Amino acid sequence: MSIKLIVGLGNPGPEYEQTRHNAGFWLIDQLAGSSLQRDKNFNALIAKTRIAGEEVWLLEPQTFMNRSGQSVGAICRFYKITPEQVLVVHDELDIAPGLAKLKKGGSSGGHNGLKDITAALGTQDYWRMRIGIGHPRTLNLQQGVADFVLHRPRKEEQPLIDESIERGVDIIPMLIKGEFADAMTKLHTIAK
């Protein structure tokens, strides 16, 4: 089994473009370059590309985060993509900036985008790449979670988040080839 669809989570519109909640979009933007096109059928920006010799769909839902499952469910049904072939890239409060983690399945951890995708796919059994943005509490910020994710990273956090996204992009070919264990090891191991 290999990845056929890579979904980046975020919110559409220029006011959200640079916010922490759009970390998933940032990774897709790196993979897609300028090839994303609006597709009304899926209510998303979408591109078909080749990675590691295989055709892969890239998707940025334009439904706002909490309704991401509408786009993901629609494209999976149309192209007969199974949940095990889906990688969802999203911001993660419980991981520090500069780190990224890969896992298959599990709970949404309170992430509304994941909750909606799980409902649309009828299972939690899809891959997730979690891009660490930190938590306002662990970063000693007096800020609520909703406010935190809808703001830009601080100047010292942005390069760390960018590095973890670059490491995420680096392992995508391994995921396309079905080398999940090796990809996980490479992503989770940070060179000192």
UniProtKB/TrEMBL annotation:
GO cellular component: cytoplasm
Gene Ontology MF terms: peptidyl-tRNA hydrolase activity; tRNA binding
Main localization, broad class: cytoplasm
Record-listed tRNA binding positions: Y16, F64, N66, N112
EC numbers, comma separated: 3.1.1.29
Subcellular location as annotated: Cytoplasm
Residues annotated as site: Stabilizes the basic form of H active site to accept a proton: D91
Superkingdom of source: Bacteria
Keywords assigned by UniProt, alphabetized: Cytoplasm, Hydrolase, RNA-binding, tRNA-binding
Site residues (Discriminates between blocked and unblocked aminoacyl-tRNA), renumbered to this chain: N11
Catalytic activity from the UniProt record: an N-acyl-L-alpha-aminoacyl-tRNA + H2O = an N-acyl-L-amino acid + a tRNA + H(+)
GO terms classed as biological process: protein quality control for misfolded or incompletely synthesized proteins; rescue of stalled ribosome
Active site per UniProt: H21 (proton acceptor)
SUPFAM superfamilies noted in UniProt: Peptidyl-tRNA hydrolase-like (SSF53178)
Keyword RNA-binding: yes
Record carries keyword Flavoprotein: no
Function as written in the Swiss-Prot or TrEMBL entry: Hydrolyzes ribosome-free peptidyl-tRNAs (with 1 or more amino acids incorporated), which drop off the ribosome during protein synthesis, or as a result of ribosome stalling.
Family classification: Belongs to the PTH family.
Subunit structure: Monomer.
Protein name as annotated: Peptidyl-tRNA hydrolase
UniProt organism field: Undibacterium fentianense
High-level lineage: Bacteria, Pseudomonadati, Pseudomonadota, Betaproteobacteria, Burkholderiales
